[in-house]
Please model this.
Amino acid sequence: MINMIIFKFKRKVPLESCRKLLTNIFVRLKYLERNDSVTKKILVISSDHTGHGHKSIAEALHEKIKMDTQIDIQVVDGFALGGKALLNIGKSYGPITRYSAKLWDMIWHLSAKHSTLVDKIIERMIRSNLLTLLNKVKPDLILSIHPNFNGSVINILRKENIHVPFGTLIADLVNIYPLWADQRVDFILSPTEEAKEKCIQFGVPEEKIHVVGFPVRERFHRYSNKQRGKISTINFLMMSGGEGVGNMSGMAEELLEHFDCTVSIIAGRNEKLKMELESSLKKRFGDRAKIFGFVKNIQDLMRAADIAITRGSPNVMFEAVATNLPIIITGALPGQEKDNPRFAEKYNLGVFCQNTEQLTSIIEDLLGKDGERLSSIKESQKNFINQQAAEDILKFLVSVEEQEYMPVKKKRFAFAFAIASNK
Model:
């Protein structure tokens, strides 16, 4: 076809110039046609081992993708990109937060103070595998939902002159540190106004930050309109995040001794805790105490509960809020969770129990006056939660202007070109 058009115009336009011009036109038309039918590729950099929250967020987004054939999400564990060494660092998060909160506090604050150094170290560890992945996937957009893979990835993209929109989806609520807030990002999706303000303090331009809410998996929202009658036997659900930490045995004993209730306890991946709870509680309280390890149907347990007692984990908190389950927060990890209990109280999503000795009186207050306080919290939860957060995030990602992906070129080609240019 190109030859036919050239034949008609070759007397007025040089043949080779015409051929190049028309070839460019047809290539561009072919590219536009391809973009009309091919899905938008989004590479999500997450984590499989640093708590369950990052993975849950990725799942919440992926659920919505099934309804849109024009979007394709590929999720990768950022720690796996750094090989065995970095992967082991990621896997150490569980044991550290489970057994030494003080050590985690030190690590978190050191990372905040030396964020540039952390970015450079991770950049060197993930560079080779990330470049290989980018050449394979050729994403239209990169989204990080873990703080360790913001500045580090941006460093690589800039050094390799790779032009792909890069954004961050923050997975924490209030205590944001510099690794979340790289000024060079194209956009930041924030779950809360508090996180947005913190990013602005770190120098991120306000126009780059969009408050979208916290994405929660669809199976939790299915129960958001549930109705509960008057409570007779109280069903407590005790959770402490995927790692299972906290004085769960002592709190469970207090509940079982003071209330006509059942207590379901999720020990998470902490097998030792699960065995200890079974040993100490089942003998005394029988079927009134139910002990679980890591569960995949936590939404069903939330559905059956009247009050949840949990650590201030963002993911657990928002899943409870989405399920319209009042929460009592008994503690939080230092660092990223420090102010989450106050956040819950600020928006009347739950109650902060600073001392477990106050647990009984707090519950009595919630249940008093025919559960007036409990009903107030449930109403606040309904008004607060953005049930379309995952959908809103995907709409935003689709709207991000695409840049044509330029594959990574090996350095020796650039060197050879420079030599040829000097001849």
User: Anything to note?
Assistant: The two ends are 38 Å apart (CA to CA). Residues 359-384 form the longest helix (26 residues). The mean pLDDT is 85.
